[in-house]
């Protein structure tokens, strides 16, 4: 019997499960998310797959999971009651932040609630300078008093972040030892273990976030492990990290900060792998689900990553200036831009009489009106149903029945009549507004980063991504679109492409041209040894390990850094000059200019990524899906393509029908998604089963 690797991705509306056999057999399941207990939906989904296929838990070799549990704990302020111990004079760093405002000139804007209330922030009289020298020793009795104070307040976790601890952790280690003596079972973190880097607010915030969600994530993973064992699934559980690599459940329970944005990462990694097989080095990924739409950039075959991001700040449109709306998390993460536009986004009319779509969403419960589960407000899914893009009897392979009459009624009453528009025109307007909102996300990762989207291929997936892809690409003057197999479950499928990765970073602030190369070699070798030790603990042999190095740098006096890869091997004077030149080139690509040779480049942080490589291809070349496509349904239906074109009788096809190239309009229906190919667009199926769409 074939062994199966399982990918599980939880979204705001659906939980997606993919079983991939080592012989290429593919089983998929899409079920509604259980927002009160996400683990329950996973267990129910596994039961459904076992029932449909006759498989058992013994067939599962590995479970890979993208989860929103940590981010939800922050969004809902349901993390652990956390205390913070910090240096005297730095008690209010979390509230002062870095003076960034998400809305300029808005005097009514309020900062998000603190994850640690002020009375739970305790200071100690100690001081270490930026060189790691002790200027004011920490007395042991002060460390113990600080711990006792927080324990008396009934905290559930303690974070420790002292000034310049990245340069010398001796005082943080003293407090850590005091916590372990007085409350050995209490979750706790010190900043040196979490983020040994400069910038006090970023380091404090990251340490607090990690501590705040640690008990929540640990309980969730323990519950999920029990549920898997109950299904006789004893295979290892791996978690997708925000950076696009996998980590073990044990490591995720200790450093949950790395899985805060794990959900969207799987699709980007899967797109990167498929794009490599198609010889497409430059792509923009577009993932639209039921609640949000996300975009990311893959350039020269490499995923783009940000050094920091904000969680809980609403939509992430990627502006470098308008930040500060959420909680700062300084960990590597796939550079995503997100907007509140999904199939469940509510369509509404604002006070000025203008049509809007989102960011409010009907979510999984009650969902769009056409689901007939209690929804009362029109959504994008209702609009797409009215326009003829969605088959009312085919969503999720027919498991979800849509009520077109209810969609027509709510749109007519709430949108069309108040605006004096025909029903089709109102629905098409909502569709276009949703598309324009999502174009903001694509521009945030392309034009706002100095990249021209016209030179990239749009890689569209998610349950709703292929419906909007062609219209968005046309607006952006992008000419090529790829829709991968199982697009509605592609974030789950993408999990199966990922490798285990461990990221390490450390501040080593030096002017590059004055730095001794051997000092850098020694620092990188020490971090590489940490990565090797962790990969060995994960079960990888030396032949299965790959160590990559990078440097965060800026021109002296700048605030933000750019990341530049560092070649393997020992550094010498020539390699140092090459590294400085590589930074200048990256600065010019990102900002459109570079400084002259007299301007010194400053090294800020060094990074190491330890990657565990598989002993066989992650995904077989030939895939055989067990899902049956449209059968016995209508061969065509009326679809609306705007005022200039109007209603057209549009062929309804399965993916396999595109083995013969077709010109639009046509609609491709699958178990998990629908793809709309507009008039005059050319579409075909490639050898990997991808839909390729070319726009004139």
From TrEMBL:
One example GO MF annotation: 5-oxoprolinase (ATP-hydrolyzing) activity
Domain Hydantoinase/oxoprolinase N-terminal: residue ranges: 5-181
GO cellular component terms, A-Z: cytosol
One BP annotation, GO: glutathione metabolic process
Coiled coil region boundaries: none
Superkingdom, natural source: Bacteria
Stored SUPFAM superfamilies: Actin-like ATPase domain (SSF53067)
Domain Hydantoinase A/oxoprolinase: from-to ranges: 203-503
Annotated ranges, domain Acetophenone carboxylase-like C-terminal: 518-688
PANTHER family, per database record: 5-OXOPROLINASE RELATED, HYPOTHETICAL 5-OXOPROLINASE (EUROFUNG)-RELATED
Name of the protein in question: Hydantoinase
